[in-house]
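Worked Example 4.2. Consider the chain below.
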Amino acid sequence: MDREKRLQAFKQYIETCKHKMEYIGLGNPCADILLIGKEPSNEGDDKEHILKNIYDVKACFENNDLTCLYKQDKPSYVNHTWNLYQKLICYIFGHKCEDDGKTDFGTYAFTTEMNNTVSKRTAMAKQKYRLDTFRDSSFIQDFPVVILACSNYIHNINGDWQINETFNVTFDEIDGAHTNYSRGNWFYTHHSRPNGNRLVIHTRQLSQNCDDKLLRDIAQIIRCHLKLSK
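Applying the procedure from the previous section yields the following structure tokens:
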């Protein structure tokens, strides 16, 4: 999908999220990488937070200023999800953010959340997963790389192949499971069939106790996929 078609698909995604009152996300809608986390990490009312995101993204799109979605203030603690997204992007592209007070991973990826509720802690979050929205969105389906950094919020099990059915992929039977890491660190790879144009990686939430080798290995696989797909 070329840039103009991607932007039209993004416009439709914005309208879908507005209609369904769902979190849109942040970052570059024309990037090659989609990062899907667990839920927006914030305190307060779900509706208020989601409405603000919808308003901000829609305003940026209508003003033809998508760069306002790219950079965010750098979180204060090291293992914040955004800091680990930044580290992953740096490993993929050999890039370093030049502004110490900001993150710029959003220049290279678009980020959204699997859960449509807002919570500082996963254990306290209500479950309102967005599989139908992701499956039906041509914008979401066009990314050549999707990272499901949301652990057990989505799965592939016998009789309930959520990852396969949502993203039109199948698990890589040969070398698809990468689990030789410290406890709680793992990832699985999937590709679209028969062409293999889309890579979907399912892994843990990128936050506390995330193994650095896991990030480096994910980055290497993504780097190779993007090189082959160009």
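Residues 158 and 164 are 11 Å apart (CA to CA). The chain has a mean pLDDT of 92. Compare this with Example 4.1 before moving on.
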